[in-house]
Amino acid sequence: MTTAFLNPDTPTWPAEFAERYRAAGHWRGETFGGVLSERAAAHPDRVAVVDPAGTRRAWTYAELDERASRLAAGFAARGIAPGDRVVVQLPNIAEFIEVVFALFRIGALPVYALPAHRETEIGYFCSFTEAVAYVVPERHAGFDHLALASRVKERTPTLKHVFVVGEPGEHTALSDVPCDPVDTGHTPQPGDLAFLQLSGGTTGVPKLIPRTHDDYIYSLRGSNEICGVDGDTRFLVVLPAAHNFPMSSPGWLGALYAGGTVVLSPAPDPATAFRLVESERVTMTGMVPPLAILWSEAAPATAHDLSSLELILVGGAKYSEAAARRLEPALGCRLMQVFGMAEGLVNYTRLDDDYETVVTTQGRPISQDDEIRVVDDEDVDVPQGDYGHLLTRGPYTIRGYWRAPQHNERSFTEEGFYRTGDIVRRTATGHLVVEGRAKDQINRGGEKIAPEEIENIILSHPSVHDVSVVGVADDYLGERTLAYVILRSGTEPLKPAAIKRLVRERGVAAYKVPDLVEFVDAFPQTGIGKVSKKGLRSDTASAGPAPARS
Ligand code: AMP
Ligand code: DBH
Question: Which residue lies with its CA nearest to atom 12 of ligand 1?
Fold first, then answer.
């Protein structure tokens, strides 16, 4: 029996849009599980995944396919059912790919946590999604994931399984799970949800982004075409594999869709990655601007042979024109800028764009059916070439977050356009230039931080009267975080380190700990007496260019 898994938690595309996207050939009725089987049948002996950490492992398509099937059977045998959520927190190791394809096969939804996430974030993902399982490494980057998993399991009643890559302690070793496949009677359908991706967020807790097989696979196919990904591509994953950018633009899923090879870098630094570029003859990779700056600085002096590199994609945060101009001469390969979002829309400069367009714009949409509007504060379209809020709708842009009806009212227009929160300008050729953002978010070198989440933590300190977390311009990261803190009158003075420690000890990802803390007597006020982040930003920006518009 084949039944579509209906998901009541997610607004979806109205029927006439779905029909249009199918008729246009965007949604072709593929699923991730099916795609892997097809590739394994077509070229079983081609290498799909190289995991160079420790003893170099290389799995062919046939091996990856068989592993995913056996693991899927093992998950099903342990009671993981279609539609169940499974929080996956793995670094750049081959098991990450094996686990997500196993979950795709049974129709369970991976929830992509980042290796940097800690108890606050993981506890939230597990409880909000009512996850039944959580997949972790034993240790990563010196951190004991087993202890964290035990604490989260204790407080999450739905969480029945913790699967561990490595020694499992009181939990279950992932290597003990696989078993011989049996027919479960359920085949995931192309319109079903495939996974939940995380939003960078502007709210106290991250929102979850529901993506279907059909819509995400279309974005992969479109990305592959634009970037020239094919069976000869050797794609290096330098950012954490769970991020939407290295996953799909065109990313490791794009490379697998095309029958290419994915090389997983355990770390993004030039010393680690350049060695892999040489040894694995890497042709393509993607990275955030601060890393592209590091690579551009390191490349001219490296002893490694980088001549296999053909294309580097840079995105996730604004890449300055000056830095963009340095990449091609330093790395000896092509640059492509990418401006994307886990909610959907992805823009690329094109291989046949002139050089000025490549270094001064953030690209144009993948699809002819991506609808772009640039509007003023009243949602009225601004004249061509003017700055405004970017709204978008299309064949791979979600129509709503998962189980978040109130956010959806704010984040989407009545016609289903997603309010990206970005301020852009559209050139005569349809390329977008990102000017800043209107949303309350900090983009710290591509890592998105919701000030509200950090403000809530700092406010819990008994001596803190009020707090405002803002981004300040930074040459390397683009923005760093600054917490303005007003102490209660009559309390002992605090040191900045005490505020940072408070945030760290709350158990959040390290990149969210404020870089700077400043104690002030008052924030700038607006007419209605609320804290003005705009005022704070223009104050801090007087030392440099404005980090963000609001
Ligand atoms: P998220 O919604 O967490 O996936 O983050 C997507 C956001 O990252 C976008 O809405 C932009 O604010 C930002 N972003 C991504 N790529 C770029 C880029 N190339 N230039 C400027 N901002 C970017
Ligand atoms: O920042 C992002 O989220 C992002 C950047 C580039 C993204 O999701 C993408 C490409 O797909």
Answer: 422
Of all atoms in ligand 1, which is nearest to the CA of residue 245? 4
- DSSP code for 176: G
- Is the Cβ atom of 348 under 6 angstroms away from ligand 2? no
Task: Report yes or no on 267 lying in a domain.
Answer: no
Q: The domain spanning residue 535 has which CATH number?
A: 3.30.300.30
- CA 454-315-57 angle, 5° bins: 95
The structural domain count of the chain equals 1
Give the model confidence (pLDDT) of 190-212 as tens digits. Answer: 999 999 999 987 888 889 999 99
CA–CA separation, 135 and 162 (whole Å): 6
Render pLDDT for 358-371 as a digit per residue (tens, 0 to 9): 999 999 999 999 99
Using the mean position of ligand 2's atoms as its centre, give its distance from the Cα of residue 414 in Å: 25
CB neighbours of residue 9 within 10 Å: 16
Indicate whether 249 belongs to any domain: no
Q: Is 39 left (phi over 0), alpha (psi -120 to 50) or beta?
A: alpha
Q: Is 439 in the pocket of ligand 1 (CB under 6 A)?
A: no
Residue 259 lies in a domain: no
Structure tokens at 121: 């974030």
Mean pLDDT of 30-40: 98
User: In terms of residue numbers, what domain contains 463?
Assistant: 442-543
Q: Answer whether 337's CB lies under 8 Å from 363's CB.
A: yes
Task: Tell me how far the alpha carbon of residue 525 lies from the centroid of ligand 2, in angstroms.
Answer: 34
What is the pTM (predicted TM-score) of this model?
Answer: 0.95
Q: How many Å apart are CA 24 and CA 369, to the nearest integer?
A: 9
